[in-house]
Amino acid sequence: MKYFVELEGREYVVDIDPDGIRIDDVPVEVDLAPGASARLWDLLLDRVSYRLRAVRAAERGSWEIELGGRRHVVLALDKRRKAIRRLSGSAAGGSDPGPYEVVAPMPGLVIAVEVSADEAVSSGQSLIVIEAMKMENEVKAKTAGQVTDIKVAEGQAVDKGETLLVIEPDGWRA
Questions:
Q1: Out of 22, 72, 85, 110, which could bridge 90 as a Cys pair, Cβ 3.0 to 4.6 Å?
Q2: DSSP secondary-structure letter at 116?
């Protein structure tokens, strides 16, 4: 299984298979065991022992990790989840924190536009509902911000990757 792990602005590719674990194609020895409580873990990484605290963060695939007295936010996604985030506009903005386009993760029919232009939205808030193959799929905001432009309407057919709306994140100034 391949995971894409983002830590402090850098992405690592972690491969886990029957032959072992590789980080960016470098084999590593890893052992992870539960610690004294539900959130504490004992980590052995290349024969160096660590105690870490891990708490699932609000964003799917995101964890708050405390290691060596330092707190880190780690995002770990498999290949499928990474593709969905990229296509839905949920991918991290990298060094550009400016407005971002929210795009359709699949072709379908817009059955609900749950926000309006100039509306403030919170992270994880439902923006648009798309029906595809008789299933309703919510498209959610990746960050808190303000909707600056809506490109679709209820009843409109959309293609995968089509821009649905634009959000300007809180704290960003053009």
A1: 85
A2: -
Q: Does the pLDDT at position 7 exceed 80?
A: yes
147 lies in some domain: yes
Q: What is the CATH number for 164?
A: 2.40.50.100
Same domain, 72 and 101: no
Range of the domain at 39: 2-79
Q: Tell me the residue length of the chain.
A: 174
Q: Would you say 99 and 167 are in contact if contact means Cβ atoms under 8 Å apart? A: yes
Number of domains in the chain: 2
DSSP string, 24-70: TTEEE-EEEEE-SSTTEEEEEETTEEEEEEEEE-SSTTEEEEEETTE
What whole-number distance in Å separates Cα of residue 136 and Cα of residue 139? 10
The residues near 49 (Cβ < 8 Å, ≥ 6 apart) are 42, 43
Q: How far apart are CA 27 and CA 173, in angstroms?
A: 43
